[in-house]
Each structure stands twice: as C-alpha cells, then as structure tokens.
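During the first year of the project, the team set up a workflow for recording each protein of interest as an amino acid sequence followed immediately by a discrete structure-token representation. This format lets reviewers and collaborators read both layers of information side by side without switching files. As required by the reporting guidelines, we include two representative entries from the current panel. The first entry is reproduced here exactly as it appears in our internal archive.
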Amino acid sequence: MEVINAIGRRKAAIARVYVSEGKGNIIINKRPLEEYFTLPTLQYIVKQPLELLGVTGQYDIKVNLDGGGFKGQAEALRLGIARALVAINAEDKAKLRAAGFMTRDPREVERKKPGRPKARKRFQFSKR
C-alpha cells in the first residue's frame, strides 16, 4: 500500500496526515502521540476515527501539525485521519459521517473592529 495523505483543519490549526500500513504508531512532528498530546482526552479525540472503524493497529500515521492551540490541533488531526481512512476505503464514509468526524468545523475567530476593545464588546457608555 502506498502512502495516503489528507489535510484536516480546525480554527488556525492545520494537520497534514500521511497514512501507511504498519503497527499503529502515530508520530506527530517527529514525536509520539503520547508525548505530543499529554492529556488523555486529546489522545482519545485523535484516536476516535480509528477506534470507530476498529483499525487501531493496522496503520502507521505520520503528521505535520502547525498553528492553533492543542484542542484545535487535536480536532484538525481527527478530521485529517478520518479523511485519509475514507481515501483508503470509501465504504467507511457513512460511519464516520454519522459520528461527525467528516465535518469541517467552520467556526473561526471573529476579527477585532476599530473603535472597540474586542470583536463585539463596546467601551462603557457614558451619558454625561
């Protein structure tokens, strides 16, 4: 099997995912998953599509992660892995979509507007 690649995005995070047959190793920016994402909840988020399809130990995954915070990076990686698994086997798409792993979360940070302290917050109004 050749290397399958996919991209996952979330907020400012971009995950470039390369999937090949292997023993289930996940390497992120040349570090193992457990070292890169120390929180068990983030490790769980990353592994969700693999566990849903029951292919946890079948593929080696190499990832280049860039931008955003750790939660956004974990969710971008989840989307990238799901897209790569669909590229390998298109019949899995319905299962992954039903679980919500194929949907790109479109929410982005709203820009700060001039004359205001934040995007929507206003300075205190003074009548006199």
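The second entry, processed by the same pipeline in the following quarter, appears below.
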Amino acid sequence: MNPPTWLFGSRKTLTFALLLAFLLALGIRLYDLTDLPLDFNPTRQLFSMLKARGMYYALSPHLPAWQREIAIQQWQESPVIEPPLLEALTALSYLPFGENLAIPRLYSILFWLLGGIFLYRLAQDLTDPNGAFFSLLFYLFLPFGIYASRSFQPDPLMVMLTLAAVWSMWQWRTRPGWKWALTAGILNGLAILIKNVAVFPLLGAALGIVLERGIFSSLKDRQTWLVAALSIFPAGAYTLYGIGSGFLGGQFSNRFFPHLWKTAAFYLQWKGQLEGIFGFSLILLALASLTLLPRRPFALLLGLWGGYTLYGFTFAYHITTHDYYHLPLIPIAALSLAPLAQVLTRLARTRQNLFWLRSATALGLSLVVALQLWTVRVELIRNDYRADAAYQYSIGEALGHTSQPSLSLAQDYGDRLEYWGWQPNTPWQDASLRALREAGGQTVDSAAYLQQALPGKRFFIITHLARLEAEPILKETLYQNYPIYAQGKGYVIFDLAVPLAP
C-alpha cells in the first residue's frame, strides 16, 4: 500500500473524498443565500455594498434619477481604504443581472474554495495527502470560516491570493527558478494590493524561507530581489498615489495603539477572540504540531505564525474587537494541523485491523463535518433579515429620502438606512466610536460633541432605541428641545430645524 494514502486506500478514493468535501463546502455556503448579508460583520459588508451600488448606478443611466444621485453620492463620499476592485467587479456583474446581493457572496464563496485548492497542495507538499486532507477539512468546515466566506468584503479574495502566494514561494524554495520567483512576486503583490494586511503573513513566510536558506545566499540571489520588488510595488504605488492625492490620508489615524501592549486586558481579549473562533486549546495544538515538521517546512510555518503575531500587535485594538481580523489565521492553523494528522496516520499504519481503523477514522471525520454543517445551518436559518430592507425603506420614505444633513443613532452606523432606506445620514458618535477614540488617547466630551454636532442638521434619526437609553445626555436634549417629526415601530425621528419653545 502506498503510505501517503493510508486513510483512503487508493488515489481514486482520495479524489472522491476531495470532490465530496468541496461539494459539501459549496452546498452549505449556498444555503440561505438570498437572505440579506447581515449575518456576518454587517457594517463592513455594507461599506462594500454602498460602493458597489454607487458604481453600478453610475454605469446605468436608465435607473431612477433620484436613486442614481443618492447612490453615486454615497459611493463618492465613502472613505477609501484598499482599492475597490471587488466592488468594481460586483458593479460590472450587476449590469447584466441587476443589483443582486447574491453575486458578491458567490464571488467570496468561489475565492474561498479556490483558496482551499492552494491550501491542499501546499499542505501536501509540506506533509502528505493524509495531513493535507485534514488541513483542508479544517479550512472548509470551520463555522467561522463558513460565515466569513459568504461575506461581501475583500478578505476571502485576500486569503485565496495569500495561499496562492505562499504555495508559489514554497515552489520557488524547493524548485528555484525565475518562473517561480516571478509567480511568487506577482501573487504576493496582488494579495497585498487587495488588502495590505496580507503583507504580515507573506512577510513572515518570506523571512522563514530566507532564514532557513541562509541570509547571505538569499541576499546574493537576484531572484530574491525580484520577489521583494514585485511584492512591494503594487501596494506601494497605490499607497503613495493615495496619500499624494489625499484620499488615503485619513486611513492611518486611529489604527495603531502600541500603548495597549502594556495592558493585561489586551492579551486576555486577544485570547478571547481566538477562543470564540477556534477554541484556544486548538491553537495550542496547532502550535505544538509544528514541532513534528522537518526544518524547511517548520521555518515556513513558523514565519506565518510570526507574521500573524506581528499583525496582531500592529493592529492592537482591532485584533481584540474585530473578529474578521483573524481570518488570515484560519489557513495558518489549518496548515499547522497537517503534520499532526500525518504522524497519527503513519502510526495507524503499524496497527492491525487497518480496515476497521480506517473505517472508524472516516466515520469520525464524517460525523465532525456533519456536526459543523448542522451548526451552521441552524444558525443561518435562525436569523432572517429579509424584512429589514422594507423597514429601512419605510423610514427613508417618511423622510422623503432627503439629502439634507441628518444625524442618526442607528444599526451599523446608519449604513442600513443609507442602503435600503436611501437616506444619507451622519452617524452619531456613540459608545463604540468613543471607545475607539479613547483607545487612541483622545479625550471625548459628550456634551461638547453634542453642541457641535446638532447645528445645521435637519433630522436626528433614531432606530437603535436601546443605545439611546445608554446616551442620557443625548436623550434628554432631544426630547426636551426638539419635536418628533415621525415615529413608528422601533424608530423615532426628531425635527432639528424647529426647536421647541423654551
């Protein structure tokens, strides 16, 4: 029997198992696809949705003029972070099919599954098909990864390109040549351009390769410099252009909080994020599994872990508050579990009754995958957001979809109202925004902010009534000084243009 295929017995069985895994992974991600994309970090998804819609309406002169005006305004007033390539692709896809939010979700699903192909091939190169298959199952069926890979944001594309880039760097290390150096450099550059945080795992992987090979021999190799130049150039040129043009200048504020490193809360909250996504014991198991690797793959994976760690310290606030910042860790953890699976399957080959042991292993894996699929299905069917579109539109309709400056205390910083209500608004600086500024060392005076924010605004739209209760100064000011313009189930709108008589 061929040792690498102990779990499957033959290459045909392995191929069948891989196809089945990808089909199941696709099927669960297509489940409940037509629901509104509010099940995973809706604020981040709405950010991309507003951009894509604005681009689409700019390309579609036949659509209602008032909606075109609002959609384009919302797009052009949105801050720019990474290049809106996914949003542009989505807008172009809307042209033949209409504005259908299933389209960007399908793109994200496709990117994540393609990433699984690169992950499997890399894990197979680092270990064997048994280890690679375990690694792939973890990547495809971790519930958090399933939710994330259905979301409209650039992260699934970034993960796919990062995996492709790391696999290419590994090919370049094991089969040196200009072809692989060029491929690795281009893929590195694309991944970092899509979302610049990809630089952390890719830099870690590259350093692991360089250090394992030898610093001096790597620095003397012209291929090393080609990979570095191609990796840096796209994102570097975009960043310099963005800063020079002014549209990226504000994206570097409230991003870096090194003073948090000195607090115990930072490490506890980071651990809490890992516990909620993976289970902290699994993270420890993945790290321990690295010790089973030979020197060369050990250096690569250790570099990936080092890159993730540097990433967490660089974005100290966000790594403890934004769960999707941990998406790059999913493939790293998956790859790290492969050597453990490899060793266990090799040990199993030495036992008697291989048929029963193989059957029990296959049954156990099937049950784990089935449990993960059931968990995700229950969560997806439990939440139905479809009614929210009509609800938000009714609020915008009550206001006449006015473009006059308005404030809001609403879900997702008013972006739901922007998107489905067609109602431009400026979000009130609530507790979460104040926490971000306070983490940056800024002093926040709610009363002073209130005095600055209200003048010149037409309406104050409240759809998050629970948060209004947590803002006593704001609540008292509004109810005592301004009339109610309109109200309904779950919302109240104050008319700021006609204050009540003292």
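For the second entry, the following points were noted during internal review. Residues 53-99 form one domain. Residues 354-382 form the longest helix (29 residues). Both points are flagged for discussion at the upcoming steering committee meeting.
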